[in-house]
Amino acid sequence: MSSRLKPGAKALGSFLVTIALTYLGLLAVTFFIGRVIPVDPVLAIVGDRATEDQIAQVRAQLGLDLPLWQQFLIYLGKVAQGDFGTSVLSANPVLDDIRRVFPATLELATVGILIGAGLGVPLGVWAAVRRGGLADQAVRVMGLVGYSVPIFWLGLMALVLFYAKLGWVGGPGRIDVAFEYSISPVTGLMLVDTVLGALEGNGWEPFWNALSHLALPGALLGYFSLAYISRMTRSFMLHELAQEYVVAARAKGLSEARIIWRHALRNAMVPLVTVIALSYAGLLEGSVLTETVFAWPGLGLYITNSLQNADMNAVLGGTLVVGSIFIALNLLSDLLYRLLDPRTRAR
User: Fold this and answer.
1) Coil, strand, or helix at residue 183?
2) Are 292 and 155 in contact (CB under 8 A)?
3) What is the rounded CA–CA span in Å between residue 58 and residue 50?
4) Buried b / exposed e across 103-135, counting CB within 10 Å, b at 16+?
5) For residue 20, what are the CA distances in angstroms to 13, 167, 316?
6) Which pLDDT score is estimated for 257?
7) SS3 150
8) What is the pLDDT of residue 48?
């Protein structure tokens, strides 16, 4: 192997080992927590009126009578084959259930991060530029409220006001029952599927109905994401605006707008990418409280219902998906970090 290829191969090998160890740790933590919590998955299957012999038989069939280390090795083998077990509630493979519910969470989280990043970054820049002024105070108060107010309470109040009182938005769920069975689930993303249906001649009414249902939970998640992103953007921009290159740019006569948006924000975007990626991962993990309040049939509601019914296969499978999302978006943000900051490529 040539001397030019060795550093690249070494970096790739280190990268793959890091991913493998991280995922192995995620599997181990998820598995052992699932085994030590005071919930018996056997009772969830056979019921509390089953005899001791029936319970013992099912426990043996599930391999729960084996030592923990042996159970873990069996679990690793099944996960490697894409087998997360069968859900007690639905009697379907857990992976099939996750494929069914995840598009709802993906749609909701994507709308939330688009609102959060699309408004949070400009507001954070504006607050940094107007440091100490009225705009800065307004953005900081808005962020403080976003951190302080419980999301479930704000969701309930929003439903009462905008749905029950004013009727501006749709209620809980993704779409009205009248349209639910007339939509072909092509992608699982309700807005996309209703647009495809409209293009086929089914009309635009289902699309607007789905949008009205998505507007309130999407805006709510977007607001909480905005609170965090605007605060971090403000902090990063204050740091950049205090740097010497900004003073030099002003001395050269560059316009303030160019200094802010072309130079300071560009450098602030390097750490901000990680902030946005982690915010998106936090929304994709299920947004449990939001999905519960709005009866949104996504991953968060799926995991919550599974936990309440001691469906541990579903809980573990959903938790693994959440962990995998965090790992993937962390890796993506690291890659973007290297692309945006050439100094990190030489490390």
Assistant:
1) coil
2) no
3) 10
4) bbbbbbbbbbbebbbebbbebbbbbbbeeeeee
5) 11, 50, 19
6) 84
7) coil
8) 67
Residue entry with tokens 């060795």 = 6
Domain boundaries, the chain: 5-80, 94-346
Instruction: Give Cβ neighbours of residue 103 (< 8 Å, ≥ 6 apart).
Output: 187, 188, 189
**CA 242 to CA 261: how far, in whole Å?**
15
Return the pLDDT at 337: 72
Hey, what's the torsion of the CAs at 284, 208, 116, 26, to 10 degrees? 0
Angle at 258 between CA 257 and CA 262, to 5 degrees: 120
Q: Can you name the residues that pair with 86 across neighbouring β-strands?
A: 93
What tokens were used for 239?
A: 């740091």
What is residue 18's predicted lDDT score, i.e. its pLDDT? 78
- Distance separating alpha carbons of residues 113 and 95, to the nearest angstrom: 25
Structure tokens at 303: 């995991």
Secondary structure (3-state) at 43 = helix
Q: Rounded CA gap, 213 and 183, in Å?
A: 15
Residues of the chain with pLDDT under 70: 1-9, 11-12, 15, 38-41, 43-48, 62, 285-286, 340-347
Q: Which helix (H) or strand (E) holds 334?
A: helix 312-340
Q: What is the pLDDT of residue 107?
A: 92
Compute the residue count for the chain: 347
Asked if 50 and 56 touch (Cβ cutoff 8 Å), the reply is no
- For residue 290, the model assigns a pLDDT of 85
In the numeric block, the tokens 């802010």 are attached to 260
Extract the tokens encoding 22.
């991280």
Q: What's the confidence (pLDDT) of residue 12?
A: 66
Contact in structure between 169 and 99 (CB atoms under 8 Å): no
Task: Give the pLDDT score at 342.
Answer: 61
User: What class has domain 94-346?
Assistant: mainly alpha
Cβ within 8 Å of residue 66, ≥6 positions away: 74
Q: Do residues 300 and 230 make contact, with C-beta atoms less than 8 angstroms apart?
A: no
- Can you state the percent helix, strand and coil of the chain, rounding each to 5? 75, 0, 20
CB 194 within 8 A of CB 174: no
Tokens 């901000």 locate to 272
